[in-house]
């Protein structure tokens, strides 16, 4: 059996090296390393894929979130609501801009931000909501957008884990995640569903004026060289990373389908086990049916019932099966983001999930033998402990 990896980027690369290698060589020979033709080509192709007016590439996903908030003109002290159960970058940029992060609980089925908790947290100081498409599952965007419209709030989608997913609206129409809110960010970190071979990110919006502002921000606030019209940062996607991403973009749907196929096999193996809750899509969908594209399975995350999760992690590691715990500590309990305003009773779901979730290997190259070995090892441990 081939060695099991959490993410197998080498095998993925071998399938596209005939496209990647010449593209990188072309950049080396042209020396167009920053904002070269490959960056503009990738930008245009991603705009077409997402059906969005503006893609603004930048240096990484964290920058993308920060720049999106800068572009909206949010001011120090204003409140931004986001999920307690996610990676720290989402709340980090809020704090860096001297905005006030307001963390709320998540839905126990989808793990995405709880809309009722958002509404409860809104105050006169609230200016924006940041839903995270966690683990690749589209958040409840219809209800979030309705809530934002009701209270005149911005919606900033954190699409770092969800690129390629589609959200099915109440009327049956579909929209790619990342183009539903007022602005969105994504990450091209190597392990992402669309990942480069270094760091990279992008901001998406259909707002022409906002796009113009953001294009200045990513380049030191310049629209004309040495003319600084807005306060900016240095955050640009380099041409080599753009070449890698442009080579991968035509395969993104196939990559996501491969992840769904692996998820389907995982779920089938764990089906009906009384101590294992497999990932769900929207409440009306299991997320991995043949017609569902709301989940792209950046992670395949189990929720365990009455299982010593940490002992299972140790057991898998002993068996050379990688796994991850995303995330072991709620953001509201992180030293950097502790706040006396928070009430533990408001984080019942998150406080439980951090003790019970485990993510199994998930990537485009998983084969049946590996999945069978992983699932049988998990089940045997649980059944015998």
What would your notes on this structure say?
The chain has 385 residues and is α/β, with parallel strands linked by helices. The chain has helices at residues 9-30, 37-50, 61-71, 89-96, 115-121, 141-151, 208-217, 239-248, 252-270, 309-318, 348-356, 368-383; strands spanning 54-58, 79-83, 100-104, 126-130, 154-158, 166-168, 174-176, 183-187, 201-205, 222-224, 227-228, 276-277, 300-304, 357-360. It folds into 2 domains: 9-249, Type I PLP-dependent aspartate aminotransferase-like (Major domain) (Aspartate Aminotransferase, domain 2, 3-Layer(aba) Sandwich); 251-383, Aspartate Aminotransferase, domain 1 (Alpha-Beta Complex), CATH 3.90.1150.10. Helices cover 38% and strands 15% of the residues. Strands 1-9-8-5-4-2-3 form a 7-stranded mixed sheet, sandwiched between helices. Helix 1 (9-30) crosses helix 8 (239-248). The chain starts with 8 loop residues before the first helix and ends with a helix.
Q: Can you lay out the helices and strands and say which pair or pack?
A:
Elements: H1 9-30, H2 37-50, E1 54-58, H3 61-71, E2 79-83, H4 89-96, E3 100-104, H5 115-121, E4 126-130, H6 141-151, E5 154-158, E6 166-168, E7 174-176, E8 183-187, E9 201-205, H7 208-217, E10 222-224, E11 227-228, H8 239-248, H9 252-270, E12 276-277, E13 300-304, H10 309-318, H11 348-356, E14 357-360, H12 368-383
Parallel strand pairs: 2-3, 2-4, 4-5, 5-8
Antiparallel strand pairs: 1-9, 6-7, 8-9, 10-11, 12-13, 13-14
Helix pairs in contact: 1-8, 2-8, 3-4, 3-7, 9-12
């Amino acid at each position: 059996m081939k060695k099991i990896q959490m993410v197998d980027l080498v095998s993925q690369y071998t399938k596209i090296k005939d496209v990647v290698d010449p593209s990188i060589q072309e950049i080396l020979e042209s020396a167009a390393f920053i904002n070269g033709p490959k960056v503009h080509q990738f930008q245009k192709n991603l705009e077409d894929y997402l059906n969005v007016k503006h893609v603004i590439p930048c240096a990484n996903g964290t920058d993308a979130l920060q720049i999106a908030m800068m572009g909206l003109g949010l001011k120090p002290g204003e409140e931004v609501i986001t999920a307690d159960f996610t990676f720290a970058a989402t709340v980090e940029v809020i704090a860096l801009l001297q905005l006030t992060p307001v963390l709320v609980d998540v839905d126990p089925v989808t793990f995405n931000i709880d809309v009722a908790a958002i509404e409860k947290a809104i105050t006169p100081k609230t200016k924006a909501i940041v839903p995270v498409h966690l683990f690749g599952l589209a958040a409840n965007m219809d209800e979030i957008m309705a809530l934002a419209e009701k209270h005149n709030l911005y919606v900033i989608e954190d699409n770092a884990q969800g690129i390629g997913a589609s959200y099915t609206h109440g009327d049956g129409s579909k929209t790619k995640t990342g183009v539903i809110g007022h602005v969105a960010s994504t990450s091209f970190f190597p392990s992402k569903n669309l990942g480069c071979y270094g760091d990279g990110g992008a901001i998406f919006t259909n707002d022409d004026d906002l796009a113009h502002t953001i294009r200045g921000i990513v380049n030191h606030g310049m629209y004309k060289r040495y003319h600084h019209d807005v306060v900016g940062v240095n955050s640009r996607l380099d041409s080599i990373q753009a070449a890698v991403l442009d080579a991968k973009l035509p395969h993104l749907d196939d990559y996501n389908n491969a992840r769904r196929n692996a998820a389907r096999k995982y779920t089938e193996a764990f089906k009906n086990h009384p101590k294992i809750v497999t990932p769900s899509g929207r409440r009306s969908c299991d997320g991995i049916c043949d017609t569902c594209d709301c989940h792209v399975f950046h992670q395949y995350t189990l929720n365990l019932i009455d299982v010593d999760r940490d002992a299972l992690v140790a057991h898998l590691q002993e068996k050379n099966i990688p796994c991850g715990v995303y995330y072991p500590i709620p953001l509201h309990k992180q030293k950097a983001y502790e706040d006396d305003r928070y009430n533990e009773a408001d984080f019942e779901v998150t406080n439980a999930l951090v003790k019970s979730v485990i993510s199994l290997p998930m990537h485009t190259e998983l084969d049946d033998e590996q999945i069978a070995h992983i699932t049988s090892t998990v089940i045997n441990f649980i059944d015998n402990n």
